[in-house]
What does this fold into?
Amino acid sequence: AAGETTTKWTNITAHPTKPLVLVSDSSGVSTQCRYPSTPAGQQLIPHWTTAPWLNSLSSVHEGSPIDLALTKPWDAPKVRPLSKPYPDMVAQLWQGNPDIQAIADLSSIVTDRKLLDRHLRYVIWFALLGWASNFVEIPWRDGAHDTRKPSPFPLWLSQQFNMRAIWPRFGLYGNVFRVPDEGAAKQSFRSTSVAVNFDPPWTWPAGPPMELFHSPPPAWYDPWGYNRPGDFVTDQPSPTYLDPFCFDGQLKLPQRPVTLDGSFKGRSWAVFVDKDPAEPNTLIVLTDEERQRTTFQLLPPKPLRLTFDAGNHTFQQEVTTLGSNSKLVIGPPAVGFNLARTIQTAWCVVSPDSVSARLRRLVTYDSKTSGVPWDKFVEANKARYGPSGAGKTWKIEICPLPDAALPEVVLDGYVL
It folds into this structure.
């Protein structure tokens, strides 16, 4: 049907002892993933993906669609403007405020004695956490019977702008945000220089999985998906006054998807090369029938990049090729150890000759026999399997194949 794809999953192999899985599809693409346990359940984190045609892809034609897509200078995503319930938030602090003095107390300890949005967000943040009396520097007020009590201003501030209603979106204490040291937080409140994880403390304690990045992620990585490129993530969360806005606008993730088209005639296999080592590798066998080559790659369980050099229009891979030969592998390889368990060997069923080479020999004049093998085959089998009567069709369902067309099958071992 229109719009359907012919590419389907054909093989999923899990390592017997390690949280690794090999996934392959009908186009020959193989992917190795780790499936760590997360609070949300199981998820696949890819280490690498390799396609048969990528093995021979080294450069692209300058000006081609792929080249234009990969060399396009993407603008850095712009930081979303802060969403405010009112254009001037400070002006809203007077009406209904149960502790007007709190505004003066806070203004007296900040630069230029001027409260900014980041100061109000700080107060709201810790009021919603219930720790305003510790982190917000407002002197305690006199209570009944010579008692002292915290200022009601922080809680009133959070209620004034209905921040409690949007709090569940961010209330993931211990998973997404952390509470900074009290002294450091108070110093940041007073300072003109604010740390990127201060406004408010959005640091992800465990950090995102390193497998998602080719280099360490920035300290202000946003686990909620804010400030992502709008042309890539169209379902942006609705803006609120508590959104993180301490970004520098240079977020490079995620990269826009680019379709790389390639052609390949052949087969590929991906198998774990061992059963229980510290880091099980994967053997990739690529048999290219058009180029008459079989290539062997040994890939580790870690992220491997395929980068594009826009200057010279070439691809650069971190994949290491063990070697190649002209024999065509015709079945999935089997990998085993010798008795001493010191050498790994990949056993492959191979055919020294390709189909096209055998067909060429079948129609090529043989000086030793003074004839063409195909002509001799036809002459020897025409009476028995050829057309009968007025017919023109051979009995191909029972006719044997010429000996010269039959493949030679050999079991080869390759030391890894």
Notes: The first strand starts at residue 9 and ends at 14. DSSP finds eight helices and 18 strands in the chain.
